[in-house]
Amino acid sequence: RVILKEGSCIEDKVDAYFLLVNIFQAREEAENAYLTCLEVLADLGEKDFLNDRLPDYCDGKDLASMVAEVTKNLECKTEEEMMAIKVDGALQISSIMKFYSFMTIVAYFVKPEVVLPICCRMVELTLARGVTKHSLMGLLQYSAALCQRSRHKTEIASEVQAPCNLAKLAISLLDRIESSDIIGRAYFIYYGLIAHYAEPIQSCGKWLSKGFEAGLSNGDTFSAFFCANHHIRLSLIGGGNLSTLLRESKYYLSVVEQHGNIVAKKFFLVYEQTIRVLIDKGASNQNDDGANELCQGDSFSHKRMAETMNFHKALQSFWLGYAERCHHYVLKLLQLNVIGRHHRLIILFYHGISSFTMLKRQRTSKLKQIPKEAIIALRAAAKDSRWNYRNKVHLLEAELSSHEGRNEDANSLYAAAIIASRSSRFIHEQGLACELAGFHYKKIGDLQRALGFFNQAKSCYAEWGSEMKVEGITRQLAILTGGTL
Questions:
Q1: For position 157, what pLDDT does the model report?
Q2: Directed axis angle between helix 91-110 and helix 30-41, to 10°?
Q3: DSSP state of 50
Q4: Which long-range contacts (CB under 8 A, 24 or more apart) does 45-50 make?
Q5: Residues 6 or more apart from 370 whose CB is under 8 A from it?
Q6: d(CA 425, CA 418)
Q7: Distance (Å, whole) CA 125 – CA 290
Q8: Averaged over 369-373, what is the pLDDT?
Q9: Confidence of residue 375 (pLDDT cuts 50, 70, 90)
Q10: Helix, strand, coil % over all residues of the chain, rounded to 5
Q11: What are the residue ranges of helices labelled H in 63-200?
C-alpha cells in the first residue's frame, strides 16, 4: 500500500499492483482483482481498447470479425516466424501482457464475456510487439478461449484442431525462452483446458501433476492448485485407479487447507466424495464434515462450483445405477450457461447410456433423441481425438443397435467398444462396455457369452478399484449361474 501511494509513476508500482491482485484473488475478491487490473492497464496505455473497443466486443459487435482476423494472422505461423518478430524491450508491454494474462483468468469466473476479446487483444499485441513469456501465455489463453467458446449443442462440433495446434506452438516456444516462473500456469491452461481435446487424457494428468510441483516451487499457488484440480478431474474421467486418486486427492486437499484456499478445497471435497462413492458407495467416508461446505456462501466461484457439483452428482448417479437421478442432474448441468465443452462432452456420453434404462420404461421422443445427439457430438470430438472419444461412440452405437433390435450390429459394436476402451486404457469404460454387452447377450438368450462378458467386466472394475461395481457384477453372475457363485 505504501508503494502504491508513494510511487511516482505506474512503472514503479506494477509489481505492487500485481501482488495486490493476487491477494484479492486468494481472498476470493475476484471483482476487486478484475477492477484493479482494469485500472492498471488503463494507466499502462490500454485505455482506448478497454473503454471503446471492449464494450462493443462484449455486446457481440464485431467480435466474430476480430476472432477471424486474429486467427488468420496466426494461421500457419512457425516457431521461427514467431521468434523473428522484433521484441519491444519496454517494461510497459511486458507489464501489459502480465496483467492481461491475470485478468483473463479472473474474468473467467466473474465476467466471462470479456475473456475472448481480451485474449484477442493479447494476440494482437504479441504479433505487433514480439514474443515474450507473457505473450505466449496470451496465445495459450486465446487457444483455451476458442476451445471453450461453444456452449450450445449445435456448436459443440465446431473445430478445435486449430486452437490445439496454436497451443502446441506456444508450449514449444516457451521451451526456447526462460519461463520457469510461469510454467505451472502454462501447464494448467494447456493440459487442463486444451490438450485433452487432441492428446490422450491420461498424459494430461501426468503433466498437470508436474505443473502442480512447478507452481508450488515458484510460490504460484494459484496455478499449482488449478493444476492439481485438473489432474484429479481428468484422471477421474480417464479411468485412473480409484485408490490412487483418493490418496492423491487427500494429499492435494491437505496442501490447499494448509494454504487456506477455500475455493480449491471445495473442488477437492467434491472429487473425494465422488471417488469414495465409486469405490464403495461412500461407506469408507469416515468424515463428512466437509460436505456442508460445498454450497455455502455466494463467492465468485459459485457458478463454477454449481457446474462441478451437478457434473459429479450426475456421474455418481450413473455409476450407482440411478438413471432418473442422473437425468435430473444432467438437465441441471446443461441449463448452466457456464458449462465447459469438455464436461458437456463427457456428460453427454453418460447421459446417452443411461437414457436406454429410462427408455425401457417410457418411450418418449425426447428420451430417444438423447443418445442420438450424444453420438453426433462425440463423433465430431473423435475426429480430433480418436483416443479419447472413439470407444464412447462405439458403445453408444452398440446400445442403440441393441435397443432397436439390430443384434448383429450390436454384437460388432460392443466388441469395437471393448477393444477401443482397452486400447485407450479406459479401464472403467472397458468394464462398462463388457457389462452392457453382458446384458445385451442375456437379453437375446446367449447366456454363455453373457457370462463371459460379465466376468470381463468384473475384472476391469476390480482393476479400476470399484468394489461397488465388482459387487454388482458378482450379483449378476450369481443370477446367471443359479446362485452357485
A1: 42
A2: 150
A3: I
A4: 45/92, 45/96, 46/96, 46/100, 46/121, 49/121
A5: 351, 352, 355
A6: 10
A7: 44
A8: 96
A9: very high
A10: 80, 0, 20
A11: 63-74, 79-83, 91-110, 115-129, 133-147, 161-174, 183-193
For residues 303 and 340, is the Cβ–Cβ distance under 8 A? no
Beta carbons of 28 and 265 less than 8 angstroms apart: no
Amino acid type, 263: V
Q: For residues 311 and 330, what is the distance between their CA atoms, to the nearest angstrom?
A: 7
- CA–CA separation, 476 and 455 (whole Å): 10
**Residues 62-115: pLDDT tens digits?**
788 888 888 888 888 888 888 888 777 665 788 899 999 999 988 887 888 899
Reduced to 3 states, what is the DSSP secondary structure of residue 160? coil
Q: Pull the grid cell for residue 115.
A: 475473456
CB-count exposure of residue 446 (10 Å: 0-12, 13-18, 19+): middle
> What is the C-alpha separation between 419 and 218, in angstroms, rounded?
43
- Give CA angle at 258 (256, 263), nearest 5°: 35
Distance, in Å, from the CA atom of 158 to the CA atom of 168, rounded to the nearest integer, reads 19
Do 278 and 245 contact (CB within 8 A), yes or no? no
24, 105 in Cβ contact below 8 A? no
Mind listing the pLDDT tens digit for each residue in 11-22?
668 888 888 888
Tell me how far CA of residue 72 lies from CA of 65, 76, 77, 166, 402, in angstroms: 10, 9, 10, 12, 46
Q: At how many degrees (to 10) do helices 467-480 and 427-443 cross?
A: 20
CA distance 418 to 30: 45
Smallest Cα–Cα separation from 277: which of 228, 326, 230, 330? 326
Amino acid identity at 10:
I
- Compute the Cα dihedral for 357, 358, 360, 361 and give only its sign: positive
Distance, in Å, from the CA atom of 204 to the CA atom of 198, rounded to the nearest integer, reads 10
- The Cα-based distances of 458 to 142, 241, 280, 437, 462 in angstroms read 44, 15, 15, 13, 6
Q: Which helix (H) or strand (E) holds 331?
A: helix 323-334
Cβ pair 236, 244 in contact under 8 A:
no
| In contact, 208 and 159? CB cutoff 8 Å | no
SS3 9: coil
Burial of 174 (0-12, 13-18, 19+ CB in 10 A): buried
Q: Return all residues near 304 (Cβ < 8 A) that are at least 6 apart.
A: 109, 338
